[in-house]
Amino acid sequence: MPPFEVPEGDPFGPHNLPYGVFSRAGSQERTVGVRLGDHVLDAGAAAVALGSPYAALLARPTLNPLLAAGRTAWSDVRRALTAWVTVPSHQETIAPFLHPLSSVTLRLPFEVADYVDFYASENHARNVGQIFRPDAEDSLTPNWKHLPIGYHGRSGTVVVSGTDVVRPSGQRKAPGDPAPVFGPSVRLDIEAEVGFVVGVPSRLGRPVALEDFREHVFGLCLLNDWSARDIQAWEYVPLGPFLGKSFATSVSAWITPLDALEEARVAPPERTHPLLPYLDDSEEEPGGYDLRISVAINGHVVSEPPFSTMYWTAAQQLAHMTVNGASLRTGDLYGSGTVSGAEPAQRGSLLELTWNGREPLELPDGKRTFLEDGDVVTLSAWAPGANGVRVGLGEVTGRIVAD
Amino acid sequence: MPPFEVPEGDPFGPHNLPYGVFSRAGSQERTVGVRLGDHVLDAGAAAVALGSPYAALLARPTLNPLLAAGRTAWSDVRRALTAWVTVPSHQETIAPFLHPLSSVTLRLPFEVADYVDFYASENHARNVGQIFRPDAEDSLTPNWKHLPIGYHGRSGTVVVSGTDVVRPSGQRKAPGDPAPVFGPSVRLDIEAEVGFVVGVPSRLGRPVALEDFREHVFGLCLLNDWSARDIQAWEYVPLGPFLGKSFATSVSAWITPLDALEEARVAPPERTHPLLPYLDDSEEEPGGYDLRISVAINGHVVSEPPFSTMYWTAAQQLAHMTVNGASLRTGDLYGSGTVSGAEPAQRGSLLELTWNGREPLELPDGKRTFLEDGDVVTLSAWAPGANGVRVGLGEVTGRIVAD
């Protein structure tokens, strides 16, 4: 009998192996962990015990050194880890370094450099357009089909799943009000997104081509772009969202390497407009990912947004973000934008799910337009893997606490 | 005769003592320097030679440890430095650690955490409004007088003065064009700004009050927020500037501590609208700074924007930026927004100086609407000090190079 076993079909089996950073009970010390079933492997300690050269990348308090190491190293480390958790002789060596997930504290897995947020779901953009500009001829702005719209967010307030979110205060002003008022946001919302994590930097002045996406991007996580709609509405013209978003952005504790998601690659939706060459992916390998997201409030699923519906791919977003010569750094994080499918039950924000509060959701504990204090929001997701086995993407969760 | 002397009235005399980071000729090693006249003092080496306890803050490759040390340490270190450069016995000890500025390479003085850019000049905002919305009833957006409008920029592309700026490429589309085209920006501009550098972090969920500005902000620098107007115009609705700004932001090599600018404090312009309590500075000490900026293209001065005209102060910007609970980190940088005075010759961008290209500038080497390849833009500034002696703020310069 092997020293440990992951049940067959477990979404966190040896086919997955996402990376995180954890601390053991009673310790503040951080180290890289790899999830295996309901355990986390202290990957650095295992590497040291096995005399692996990858100890230098894994016995570290953050994923950044591994992120910076590049695609060849990413593949080599993954191959090594796969052997450690599947070959019986290695299994015996690493068994002491497996800790039950329930016994550890998961940390922010990497130091976030720049954080950018996109707006890449056509369904989401059309819903928002219809809600806020009901009389407009086209619910999309004229640039939407020509470039992936994005903006920079606050990297210093990216927090790991499980961190409480303090309800932000700020200015708001309804159209008829004579002056703005100040107070806690009364329209606190979520945005269900996927975040992409940059590993390999690029040089200032040198764009990154579409086809180099996998050389720079290590993996992905789940991301909740908490949004105070009332603060945002009053502040965002003309320079975009600021305090309506900057109070917190939550990411999942596990970064799933792109290498674990090969089976999930799909073609993006058909393009309705010709694309400029730097964004034209018609000759590229499929740039979409079939990720099945679930949004729950207090344990009750309210939406299941399908990531495969995103109009702009992560590779296109990377190419666009750098086409002006802006450089990448290890730890750059970019969000996909709210994921909303075509169906009402696939919308990734309460703004859309309740149609700006006009159609409240019926939850077991009462109606919701926007979030109430004490609400716990959990995004979770999985992707199809080989042989019908799911690749688990974990979850990102957060509880709203009063100011 | 003392071992070194700074000419009387020199704007970089012992009353100033701005901080930077430099490398000696032929070396990549970085260390903290303090400017004295046309020399830079290796402050860490001097501290070690004098047995100073501040060696731990100064013998470092970046200003971040000093920034994080807090106001009491900032004052103590400044007092020590003042003694080192003025007391004869100390002067002899530190003389070997003074290097001619011409012999060193100046580096980015601190690691930039988050970068935020504001929009705080009423003259600038009105000029932009009149240029782009000539038919609007009010050239300011309705929120402008109620909050300091800001957005996050790209911290990874903040570069030190002297770094070449590659002309960015991107999408642009004139209103009559059927589709966007791609190519190098043809409307490359500057924005003359002042940048504020955060030293002491704050806790997530805890706003920083107006009166705590000086506990968190260490000092200021000059900042050129390079802007590709054509890229920006096509991309910025609805989420704000992105690639039109993210290719480069240049900062001066010297960070002037707020302690050197006590004589330059002035009241901001009279407020025309009542302010919410968290922004109401009517009972505070003067929050403005009388900084005299000069903008030169290829050595020819084209504008002299007065910072004292800024409607929103740096303290108000800090209070606003954190009022939603967003936390500060050591190394956060925020720009004032383009500084434009009331007079045409005080405008801080070519957009305004040429009224969107309609009134070209006459330079000795020809007409300019926007920047041409090879143009060198230099912002410099000084502030009034005690006894009529200027406090030099140095310069931020950059040359445009073809893509």
Automatic annotation (TrEMBL), chains A, B:
Residues reported to bind substrate: 119, 133, 232, 236, 338
Entry's Gene Ontology molecular function annotations: fumarylacetoacetase activity; metal ion binding
GO annotation, biological process: homogentisate catabolic process; L-phenylalanine catabolic process; L-tyrosine catabolic process
Pathway where this protein functions: Amino-acid degradation; L-phenylalanine degradation; acetoacetate and fumarate from L-phenylalanine: step 6/6
Database matches in Pfam families: FAA_hydrolase, FAA_hydrolase_N
Domain of life: Bacteria
Binding site for Ca(2+): 117, 191, 193, 225
Protein known as: fumarylacetoacetase
